[in-house]
Amino acid sequence: MTVVSVLEMELALKNTLGKKGMENEDLKKLAEYIAGFFGYAGSVIDNRLASEDRDIFYMLEEEGLLTTMEEEVHLKKGKMWRIHYWMLKTDQVARLARIDSSRSEDEEFLKIYEELPSDAWGRE
Q: Which CATH code is given to the segment(s) 6-114?
């Protein structure tokens, strides 16, 4: 299983929620908050979440960073028990983190052209 670092999560959040107006400080806190749930695990049992946590998880699901899974377990009494999980989409988080960092590299290269004087583009 791929482990997502807090920095990768922060970059992915910048590329999603940051573009919708969330401040960098709030993104950093949210990345640490998510790491507190997932840590080195890829899933969290839904029963563990408070309603406020679940609201945040639904928001992250809309952004494509989380998904849900359901498992059915048969109990000895013949009843069926459903367990709901939240799964961190590590591949999506990593992809979004790379997009953000590659854009900053591209922006650095473009600054070279901005610093050139206008007569550098003319031909004689």
A: 1.10.10
